[in-house]
Write a structure and sequence with these properties.
The complex is a heterodimer of chains A (179) and B (421).
Chain A lengths: L3 H20 L5 H21 L2 H20 L9 H19 L11 H27 L6 H28 L4 E3 L1
Helix pairs in contact in A: 1-2, 1-3, 1-4, 2-3, 2-4, 3-4, 4-5
Chain B lengths: L1 E5 L1 H20 L3 H19 L6 E6 L3 E3 L4 E8 L4 E5 L4 E9 L3 E8 L3 E13 L5 E16 L15 E8 L8 E7 L11 H7 L3 E6 L1 E3 L1 E7 L8 H21 L3 E7 L3 E7 L2 H14 L23 E5 L5 H12 L3 E6 L19 H26 L3 E4 L4 H14 L6
Parallel strand pairs in B: 3-9, 14-15, 14-17, 17-18, 18-19
Antiparallel strand pairs in B: 1-9, 2-4, 4-7, 5-8, 6-7, 8-9, 10-13, 11-12, 15-16
Classes of the chains: A mainly alpha (179), B alpha/beta (421).
């Protein structure tokens, strides 16, 4: 039962995200369908084999499938995108959950702490995704300045994450090992 | 020692964030960046909110002494309360139950399966941060030692000393005087008490005859324990039997109110002055538990033994597998100095199918050499035993139990003429 729950959750989330992607019309439907099937297969395999890294690859494949449906459109941003983002995040968390307790795997969080942590991260992440969606939906003329602003934002996010990671390493003990 | 670990998710989420942002830039569409947003937030939150994980563990053992098979509860108070705890135990101990209770106290039941002195207190605590992105494993060392006593055979009596000390005890001495056990009849002499008169003999012989009795005396016994390294595959078994036989002998002598001492000679000499009572028994068994650590074959002979400290009328009961000439030389030297010496040889049980090479039927050359080696060892042991017996030292083995060995020694010593050197 403890093993079945994360596997079932993973399969359900992967199927839902894949269904959203495949349901979108477009000329790249073959590519979208291929990525969606691969994403579902990778997610379920990762959950079954307790291989957390496959969850990330599955999220990448399913995200690429959804993004591919929007590639050829010129309309505004799909309002379902924050929901898909939430689904991908929960999918990656579900695969990681299934991998806990396995040989060499990460230790598991107690259920209450896990629920609080995932709820907080998912809520904040979905809010951030919604804000980005609203921001990019604003009627702003596309020019070089906007593109530069977008590039700067990307660099800014990466720099913030890396500086946080370095600060975390300094807080901890010097003998940091990959797990 | 603390080791920090990073979850696979950190690298994976960072990859997704970079892929989403780069994908958004390359395609000119915002969707990849929006899809990456929850991962970026989770990662940023995990990194920003996570601080150093403070872990502590405090271990408490409910007993520091136990018998083989007893349960000992180890309570570990751990911080943070939901941290996973693992107690590392030595071979000879088993952890068979773990109950996590409220308040961050983990109770483990440790069961010793073999006697010995075991360090208990190496605790590994694994704690996660709030997001489960990082965790630490910290090992705590607590210097608790669990001393596990052997469950020794309970003897009815020990080998009696040939010349007990002039102290009232429970062993009938060979001397004659006031006591309980009848010794002989003799004619009355002035000073004899009226209660000693044997009226039946007096009536038959026409003059007053009195009973002579053996007075009860206590003995001083020194257990000479040979813990020198043993040849052959059954080294642990020999030491085990030696310790069990010694513990059984110490137990019976302390129950008989005799004074018991210990002289263990392995690599180091361990000397415990004879004493009586349960405290002395515990001291002896404690010393025996340490002999395993000192098991070595570098015995430097009897010159390093505290011969001057041995009580002159003490029974020296050697418990030795007779694997070394040096031990036999030492016993012969003690006998030559006038000590009362007997020996018990800890042997495997008679019904046990010993795995010694001599009992195997394999036919290759290696086994043949082993068989010949075992036969040679047996021959050497027999020669050493014969040498001791020629010196008047009774030797018996414990293949039918320590009690049977003790009875055999006692019987042979009664039949043997007293040898005065």
């Amino acid at each position: 039962m403890a093993r079945a729950a994360p596997v079932a959750l993973t399969a359900a989330l992967a199927a839902a995200v894949a269904g959203v992607a495949v349901a979108r019309p477009g000329r790249l439907h073959v590519l979208v369908a291929g990525l969606a099937v691969a994403g579902v297969a990778l997610a379920v395999t990762g959950a079954l084999l307790r291989w957390a890294s496959l969850g990330v690859v599955a999220a990448l494949a399913l995200g690429a499938a959804f993004a591919a449906t929007r590639y050829e459109t010129t309309t505004v941003v799909d309002v379902a995108t924050p929901g898909v983002a939430l689904g991908l995040f929960l999918l990656a968390e579900a695969v990681a959950w299934s991998a806990e307790g396995g040989a060499g795997g990460a230790p598991g969080l107690p259920a209450p702490r896990r629920l609080v942590a995932i709820t907080a991260a998912a809520g904040a992440g979905t809010a951030a995704a919604a804000m980005v969606t609203v921001a990019v939906s604003l009627p702003v003329t596309e020019d070089l300045a906007v593109a530069a602003l977008g590039g700067a934002a990307v660099v800014g996010v990466v720099v913030v994450l890396l500086s946080l990671a370095r600060g975390r390493a300094r807080d901890g003990d010097p003998d940091v090992a990959g797990g | 020692m603390t080791i920090s670990y990073t979850s696979h998710r950190v690298a994976g989420y960072l990859t997704l964030v970079v892929a989403g942002l780069v994908g958004a830039l390359l395609t000119g569409r915002p969707e990849p960046a929006i899809l990456a947003a929850p991962f970026a937030v989770a990662l940023a939150g995990g990194l920003a909110l996570t601080h150093r994980i403070d872990v502590s563990a405090d271990l408490e053992v409910d007993h520091d002494r136990a018998l083989e098979g007893d349960d000992v509860t180890v309570a570990i108070a751990v911080t943070p309360p939901d941290a996973a705890v693992a107690l590392e135990v030595s071979r000879g101990l088993s952890v068979r139950q773990a109950d996590a209770t409220a308040g961050g106290i983990v109770s483990l039941v440790v069961t010793p399966t073999r006697w010995g002195a075991y360090p208990v207190g190496r605790v590994a605590v694994r704690a996660l941060d709030d997001m489960g992105l990082f965790w630490t494993e910290t090992t705590f060392e607590r210097r608790a030692v669990l001393r596990v006593y052997p469950s020794a055979e309970r003897l009815r009596r020990g080998v009696g000393a040939a010349d007990p000390e002039p102290l009232v005890g429970r062993h009938p001495s060979r001397a004659r005087g006031e006591g309980v056990e009848f010794a002989d009849l003799r004619p009355y002499s002035p000073g004899d008490r009226a209660r000693s008169v044997n009226w039946r003999a007096t009536a038959r012989r026409g003059e007053v005859w009195v009973n002579d009795r053996h007075p009860e005396r206590s003995s001083a016994v020194v257990l000479l324990v040979d813990t020198l390294d043993t040849r052959g595959a059954d080294r642990a078994g020999v030491l085990d039997r030696t310790v069990r036989a010694t513990a059984a002998a110490a137990d019976v002598y302390t129950r008989s109110h005799d004074r018991v001492g210990l002289l263990a000679f392995g690599g180091n000499v361990r000397w415990l002055r004879p004493g009586s009572g349960r405290a002395q028994l515990l001291r002896i068994v404690d010393a025996l538990l340490d002999t395993e650590v000192l098991l070595t074959g570098t015995f430097q002979g009897g010159t390093h033994l505290p011969l001057g400290a041995l009580p002159p009328r003490a029974l020296l009961l050697a418990i030795t597998p007779l694997d070394h000439d040096a031990v036999v030389d030492t016993l012969a030297d003690l006998r030559a100095r006038g000590f009362d010496v007997a020996a018990l040889v800890p042997a495997p049980d008679a019904g046990r199918d010993d795995a010694s090479p001599s009992r195997r039927g394999d036919g290759d050359h290696g086994d043949e050499f082993e068989r010949e080696g075992a036969r040679l060892d047996t021959l050497l042991r027999d020669m050493r035993r014969l040498r001791l017996e020629r010196l008047g030292i009774v030797v018996a083995d414990t293949r039918h139990g320590v009690a049977a060995g003790v009875e055999e020694v006692e019987l042979c010593r009664r039949r043997m003429p007293r040898v005065r050197i």
